[in-house]
């Protein structure tokens, strides 16, 4: 087992969540039932669709959200909250309900991705953690989906761990896999989430040996002729020649990590074919993003390795989602829709239910029904092909186990592949644009 | 205590590090002594200086880098490595030496931030983890330092946890503090790293109550008149009036999270003064970056809260550092400087020692002495004011304890404040530019 115990997830929280809890426990509002919604006001990076990711991670962290001795001692010693609040936190369990989009689902501005219902006390403290997880993972998945579109049927491997914080890297590998990547270099993502892992050798491997040929011979001896040899440490043409000489024409693949890739890939393909290595695959891995991938569509490339751009959301490292109180009980127990009024950050009060309308199987709008009341709305709207987008993720504190762990990841990946089929063609273009579907709000009751 | 044990740090690693290890154990090169260097080819985002951060976190993760049962089982079940390699990993301890820049130090293109010496086997497996930590934390610190410069003497609070993966958020709070921020909203950063925490209330607090006045009264009752009230949920002028009426002219502060900040801050200051609340402070928190902070220099603002831009490195979420084999033993035990030859990613072989030359106390260059040999070079160069930049962080596997934990963070923050004084004035400008100091390589021996 590992040497150190995990810090609890409970303090992965902004201080003001606990300060508000503290004051609410004093004035009695802590027990008011509330509806909080997690949504994005816009899509990251003027994309045409967003991809929901992180749901399964958030639900696991929620299940583990406990204030233990160490956390309580910190809050006491630093006088963050008073003794009553410490007692409340010691007993904290989320007993409310969370409805939301399936992981892997497409989303648009205003989509109610998570709808959290519970007392103010139990729901407010989840704001920071829910946003941290969903903002990061959805930003990565949204970028990864575009790369997957750009790659056509060619497989993509995520290999950006070194360009992301060490735990973000695991989450990023998971999110990219949900959005269509085939594998990751990150071993922990393999262990924890069941993402297939890949990788053979770096330049250091070649440099460690007295000659490139020594390095290739040793790698083939250890990993077999099906391995992929990195051929660009010194001179690519000489590297390819040595690779085929050492491994034979059955060599699995060569990797190119530098140079002008369209030119280099064409030359390497021509050389491999000339040497008889017609089945040897070419993988390229040098600073690729969705645009570079698209530009290689006509090149003889068999697979792509993507690093920095996918783990940093290709220019949009956070999805910018917010977690807002949209409805609450008043002192008499009646329901009140609430929203901030400021002009530049206004939000829409009232509980939401979301549907994707379709025509002939193709999505036409994100239809969001808004209610002033608390009762759940009908799960159907008056539209022949509307699909309800929300499912129950947590019911009275109990999490749907199918959303958790590697099985949840596999399910999210399948769901994403399915729903991508219903997106209109214009959603798949790479250029900056408006969202591919309009968000339509409809008041009900 | 927390509910779940930490996954070990050992699998926060690209698969190819272990594949190379596996092959090296078979061919005997695993025992060759090596020097790896961690450096950036350029500064993130065309900045004028970089800030080293993450060192203390990396050293802690290195001390905890152990392959436990779970990790070994994963590697065995997925046939990542063979039985000999599993035995090696089970016993793995880093026994080498790491010299490097102090945490908080400025760096420039080519600066040898970490120099890792050991066998190939023990040093190669650290590549991914070292880069994940240093690339993320240094990107945040580099952005944070510019914000700190832009803020002049006004305090900055980091409050971007919700826009970063939940564990990145803790690392980002730590890095921003090292680079000059005064506090964070992130409670775990307070517990784990000793960063001062802050925060009072969100819009949800006001919306939870039947009136804004109820919310303010309750907050003042819980936190005292010294608290900061968020005044922009409905109408700012009405909010300020209510705030002073409720708390009195001794109100600690008001926070503004929307609107055109120079205009709004001036109006709020005028209103507060008119109401007699002349000592009440104004803090602003709406989508600030270094440029927005600089633009508020003439506005009556007392402190800044910064979210998204600092935790995402203000456009450069990763520092782009690499970890390269620069020297190794050959079969006969002699030392060979090595480097990749490809034109677009060439690196410079040979062991490096780094100095900052100064004139009259102001830094003039990053002087890097390059040696073909393995023996450590003299820690002085022929320059009257040169300062040696590298210190011993790990000696024969033993980590300098002063670099670890909250004490290490406090030390790094002091060191950063000190070295910022020696940077030339042009380093402090915000516009895109060349690095403020030239990097000068000098061959020795």
TrEMBL record, chains A, B:
Its EC number is 6.3.4.21. This is Nicotinate phosphoribosyltransferase. Pathway: Cofactor biosynthesis; NAD(+) biosynthesis; nicotinate D-ribonucleotide from nicotinate: step 1/1. It is an enzyme of class 6 (ligase). Belongs to the NAPRTase family. Keywords: Glycosyltransferase, Ligase, Phosphoprotein, Pyridine nucleotide biosynthesis, Transferase. Transiently phosphorylated on a His residue during the reaction cycle. Phosphorylation strongly increases the affinity for substrates and increases the rate of nicotinate D-ribonucleotide production. Dephosphorylation regenerates the low-affinity form of the enzyme, leading to product release. It comes from Microbacterium invictum. The keyword Phosphoprotein applies. Residues 11-135 form the Nicotinate phosphoribosyltransferase N-terminal domain. It holds the Pfam family NAPRTase_N.
